[in-house]
Design goal:
Layout lengths: L3 H19 L3 E5 L4 H13 L3 E5 L5 H4 L1 H13 L2 E4 L3 H11 L7 H5 L1 H17 L1 E3 L5 H6 L20 H10 L4 H5 L12 H5 L3 H10 L4 H13 L13
Parallel strand pairs: 1-2, 1-4, 2-3
């Protein structure tokens, strides 16, 4: 197990240094009430008092219930300023506007919310001189389980090297709300969605593979397939080489 006291100090120092070099005045991050954003919020607040977490529910009922409640609870426990932006009408307007141009698929519709959230965070960041903190972890990155130009966009990410297992250990060390540490991970993109159900493999299996290289045949097949088809998400933009 990592030394989380030392990890906390090093990550806070990293955030302080990154912010100082940027010339910006504060940090903003998306507070979905989940494990990753809770850890990012704690770290950013410890590094910069001028940290804002934005609750951005969008259509999904879970966004307006358990996730909203957990987001508020975490912010209250660690003294993080919280703002609420309901993106449901924006999503509806986008779907209505694009209706005549393309027949949308389920995946395309699901990815609208993360991109609207990132647009919102960068609008706030631009207006107030803030950096946008990312909230993705190592397990999600390897699987490509994030939205390109959505939650995959940020100015700094203090937890990108941590697996989901390590995120939970870190949150336990920091005594984060138990409701966040025990609920099933979910992006909340549609009703009933959970990460592990959608991927068809558990984070425990993914993390075991990442940390030890070991996985049973079925899990390894799923992990390899997700990693392969999502490679484009981990690559820089393609530009003309001239």
């Amino acid at each position: 197990m990592r030394n989380y006291k030392e990890e906390f100090e090093k990550r806070v120092a990293f955030i302080k240094e990154t912010l100082a070099k940027s010339g910006q005045k504060g940090i903003v991050y998306g507070n979905s009430g989940g494990k990753d954003c809770t850890l990012v919020g704690i770290l950013c607040k410890a590094a910069c008092d001028n940290t804002v977490g934005v609750l951005m529910p969008c259509a999904s009922q879970r966004n307006f219930s358990i996730d909203l409640e957990d987001g508020k609870a975490a912010a209250a426990q660690y003294g993080i300023e919280t703002r609420l932006v309901d993106l449901t009408p924006v999503r509806e307007a986008e779907l209505a506007a694009i209706q005549g141009a393309v027949e949308m698929t389920g995946a395309a519709i699901a990815n609208i919310a993360p991109r609207l959230r990132m647009t919102t965070l960068y609008a706030i960041a631009g207006a107030e001189g803030r950096l946008v903190a990312g909230t993705g972890n190592r397990s999600e990155a390897y699987m490509g389980y994030f939205t390109k130009w959505g939650d995959g966009a940020y100015d700094l990410n203090p937890i990108a090297d941590l697996t989901v297992t390590e995120i939970y250990e870190f949150l336990a060390y920091l005594d984060a709300p138990m409701s966040i540490r025990t609920k099933a991970p979910s992006a909340g993109l549609f009703e009933g969605q959970t990460d592990e159900k959608e991927m068809g493999v558990t984070y425990a299996a993914i993390d075991q593979f990442l940390l030890t290289g070991e996985a049973d045949e079925q899990d390894r097949a799923v992990i390899d397939r997700f990693h392969r088809i999502s490679e484009h998400k981990r690559q820089p933009q393609v530009t003309y080489p001239g």
